[in-house]
Design a protein that fits this description.
With 404 residues, the chain is an alpha/beta fold. It has helices at residues 14-24, 43-53, 69-76, 91-107, 146-159, 163-172, 175-178, 206-217, 235-252, 274-287, 316-319, 327-334, 344-349, 357-372, and strands at 6-9, 36-40, 58-62, 81-84, 116-122, 140-142, 183-189, 191-193, 220-223, 229-234, 264-265, 270-273, 311-314, 337-341, 389-390, 402-403. The radius of gyration is 21 Å and the shape is globular. One of its GO terms (molecular function) is aldehyde dehydrogenase (NAD+) activity.
Length: 404
């Protein structure tokens, strides 16, 4: 495939902005003449993208939101590769993208130009529910057994519907994906850290959110028994994986990419207990002299803070103050066990993350400086599309109405 038509969502976000930057700055000969269509909210942002990358490299398309599924399906039908790096919590738009690519596949006469969907999801899809359900602290998922992971998610979603998991299943389980008419792969990210390279949102979520909590209150928080665990990956290493995937589609028609029911990839470079994220934030704040704060305590300034490093055990409702009030996301995010072992990207694509344990340790100091400077006013709302209540599909029990 030469000069594929690429549609990217999330270009103004953390992951999508970094992916766009890395794609357009890649030194790979096969990517030198890429022009990427980007879905954007707001003419001002569209103008900024064109000024930064040039009208010959980016083509902004204005849209209102992900509920415009007819528009999204139509746009997908006009492209060879769709990179969904926007919200992974919107099943309808994700399905519309695959449906549009299916139309693209029907219209092409070249069997070697199968359209591809690169979907962005998250490891909370495979998390347990240790507070309101069962805990599985020793469970580890392996992407070399992608079909097993897919079947597990399908079973879990039948038991309890979760929008991010539903979106991933809609992509990988779509008839066009199952029949290989469309190549569909989901990059199921763990905790993403580091400074983004896009023009707009350059902050991750978990470390900045915990760091702001620590700086404001003077202590960290722990949800559950402290065994909650997650893997991590630097945003630049993650973006490099997307570039490798696009290259494989362009250069080898996606021969090395898993797809459909086996198409779940875990991009991991390290693992951490959730309580250690709070500890890392405290260590950085105390080392820099930001904490403890002294002075007369008053409800307005909260001038006094604990004199020693302190991690407070909180309930689900307190943890949900950091997740736009979403109790499910709070539970899986701050207490869940979702250990994921990723070998597929390394073995099939030669992906080698270079920003690992040392970069992770440095990130706490970096995020502290950003928070103190007021540059990390970041919330999880946009990531989980926390805008309206979508009803759970008929026949699915246990979830109630889920805000997505």
């Amino acid at each position: 495939m030469s000069s594929p038509k690429i549609l990217l969502t999330g270009a103004t976000g953390y992951v999508g902005g970094t992916v766009l930057h890395r794609l357009l700055n890649s030194s790979a000969p096969s990517l030198q003449h890429l022009k990427v269509s980007v879905l954007v909210r707001g003419e001002d942002r569209a103008d900024q993208l064109v000024r930064a990358y040039g009208a010959h490299r980016v083509s902004p398309i204005l849209f209102r939101d992900y509920d415009e599924t007819e528009l999204i399906e139509k746009l997908a039908s006009q492209h060879d590769i769709v990179i969904n790096a926007g919200s992974g919590f919107h099943p309808a738009s994700a399905e519309a993208m695959v449906q549009g690519l299916s139309q693209r596949a029907t219209a092409t006469t070249d069997a070697n130009t199968r359209p591809w969907m690169l979907h962005t999801s998250g490891c909370s899809n495979v998390s347990d529910r240790p507070l309101t359900g069962q805990a599985f602290p020793d469970r580890e998922m392996h992407d070399a057994e992608g079909t097993t992971v897919y079947d597990f998610e399908k079973s879990e979603n039948e038991r309890e519907w979760y929008p991010q998991r539903a979106a991933e299943l809609a992509v990988l389980g779509h008839p066009a994906s199952q029949s290989s008419e469309v190549g569909a792969l989901s990059i199921q990210a763990p905790c993403i850290f580091g400074e983004g390279e896009g023009l707009f949102q350059r902050a991750g979520l978990m470390v900045p959110i915990m760091m702001r909590y620590v700086v404001e209150k003077g202590y960290g928080f722990q949800l559950g028994d402290g065994t909650g665990v997650i893997d991590y990956v630097h945003v630049a290493d993650l973006a490099d994986l997307y570039v490798l995937c696009v290259r494989d589609v362009v250069e080898r028609a996606g021969a090395n990419l898993p797809r459909g029911a086996s198409g779940i990839v875990f991009p991991t470079s390290g693992r951490v207990y959730m309580k250690d994220i709070a500890q890392g934030c405290l260590d950085a704040a105390f080392a820099a002299g930001v904490l403890p704060r002294r002075g007369e305590a008053d409800e307005l300034t909260m001038a006094m803070t604990p004199a020693r490093k302190f991690i407070r055990e909180v309930d689900l409702h307190e943890a949900a103050t950091t997740t736009a009030g979403n109790l499910v996301v709070a539970e899986v995010g701050w207490a869940g066990h979702r250990a994921t072992r990723g070998t597929v990207a390394r073995e099939r694509l030669g992906w080698q993350p270079t920003r690992c344990a040392e970069a992770w340790a440095r990130d706490f100091g970096d995020e502290l400086r950003h928070v103190v400077a007021g540059k990390r006013v970041v919330t999880i709302d946009s990531c989980i599309a926390e805008k309206e209540v979508l009803p759970v599909p008929d026949g699915v029990v246990g979830a109630g109405s889920v805000r997505v």
